[in-house]
C-alpha cells in the first residue's frame, strides 16, 4: 500500500512538472542536491493549501499540515470526507464514506523524502533540467526499493524560505506508473502545529 491508494478512489493526476518548469533547458546551481537537503533539514513544519488534479482535469482542494519528522495531514475537506495522516511511523488513509482505513509504513512511500529526519539525497536523487533558473527539480527513487515509487519535487528559489528554497509541489509515481500530483499555495514555514493535528476519528464501518 502507498500514497497512491488515494487515486483508486479519487484521482490519477497529471504531472506537475510541466506546469512548474515549463520545459527542458538546463539551469542548475552548484550542489543543488545539497541545497535541497539543507532546505528540507531547515523545515521543521509547513502548512499550505493544495490542489490535486487528475488526467481528466478533475481537481480536489484541501489543506496540508506537515511536521518533520514523519508527521503529515492532508485534509480534503467535508466534501471529500477523507484524510491522509502520518503519525511519525505510519501513513493512514481514512475513507469515512465507506468506513474503512488503510495503513502502511512511511518509508514505503515517496513522501518519506519529505518526512525523513535526516534527508540524504545523494544515493537516490538527481537533478532534472528546468527551463526557469529559479526552479530546482529533484527526482528521487531508491534503486534498491523500486516498488516504493518515485517522487519529483519542485522548489522555487526564495530567500525567505528555509534554505532559500520554497517547496512548490511534487509528482509521485507508484510501481505501476500511476501519478499523484500536488501543487502547493500559501506556504507557511516553521509555524506551530499542535500534535493532535496528526490524530483522526476512527471511521464507522458500514453494513
TrEMBL record:
Residues 1-18 form the signal peptide. CDD domains: LolA. It comes from the Bacteria. Pfam families: LolA (PF03548). InterPro entries: LolA/LolB/LppX, OM_lipoprot_carrier_LolA-like. Keywords: Signal. This is Outer membrane lipoprotein carrier protein LolA. It comes from uncultured Sphingomonas sp.
